[in-house]
Write a structure and sequence with these properties.
The protein is α+β, with helices and mostly antiparallel strands. The chain contains 10 helices and 9 strands.
Length: about 230
């Protein structure tokens, strides 16, 4: 049995009411901008059933265009019930039960949606996400993806010490990476690493790209918080 538009709309309204800091982007995607990131919640249809699963998401704003930015999330954090179990939620679930589920999310929303966010909070959120066994199972390319995202966050706030610390972590951790896995996603490791170093000297261009993407008609009306040192 298909789910009615009215049921989906009611679910969307419930989530937006619970997170007024977010705006509806499209479908069941609710976003805001936090410095060089798009952050928010996505409700994705569960496979094989007329349910959905909610996720906290984080996308980059530094790709070449807005569609590329929204092509793949940095973070896709499954939102679980208070027992820590990933469940799919019925679109026609009781309002009280859905309200209780949302009320118990707490730190699963990895970044504050209410205020400016500190760089240390982004680093902690990315590190916490990496501890998820399902994320670690994605191997070396995922770790590289997360470390490079932390690098770009540090570059955004112009924290050179943190930039250098992350690059040192890349060099250290990469010694135990599965390079075949890495190459499949990113190509030659040294070329990828050199590309990160080159971004340090192109910070103005990097910031300009973020500002340009942030002004795109698809997201220019989203609420905004800053990423700060």
């Amino acid at each position: 049995m298909s789910i009615s538009k009215e049921s989906k709309k009611k679910v969307e309204e419930t989530w937006l009411k619970a997170f007024p800091q977010l705006n509806k982007f499209s479908g069941s995607r609710f976003f805001k901008i936090i410095g060089p990131f798009i952050a928010g919640i996505e409700l994705l249809n569960a496979w094989g059933v007329n349910n959905y699963k909610p996720y906290f998401v984080l996308y980059p704003l530094w790709e070449n265009n807005i569609d590329k930015c929204l092509d793949k999330p940095i973070v896709l954090n499954t939102l679980r019930n208070k027992k820590g179990i990933s469940i799919s939620l019925p679109y026609e679930w009781d309002d009280k039960l859905l309200g209780e589920f949302i009320a118990n999310l707490g730190p699963q929303i990895l970044l504050s949606l209410n205020k400016d966010v500190f760089l240390t909070e982004v680093s902690a959120a990315i590190d916490l996400y990496w501890q998820d066994p399902g994320v670690k199972a994605q191997s070396s390319h995922m770790r590289a993806h997360l470390l490079s995202s932390s690098f770009f966050a540090a570059l955004y706030v112009n924290n050179r010490a943190e930039v250098e610390r992350i690059l040192a972590s890349v060099l250290l951790e990469s010694q135990s990476w599965n390079m075949q896995n890495f190459i499949h996603f990113f190509g030659d490791f040294q070329s990828w690493l050199d590309g990160l170093y080159m971004q340090i000297g192109k910070r103005d261009e990097f910031i300009s790209k973020i500002k340009g993407n942030g002004m795109h008609k698809k997201i220019k009306d989203l609420q905004f918080s800053e990423l700060v040192v």
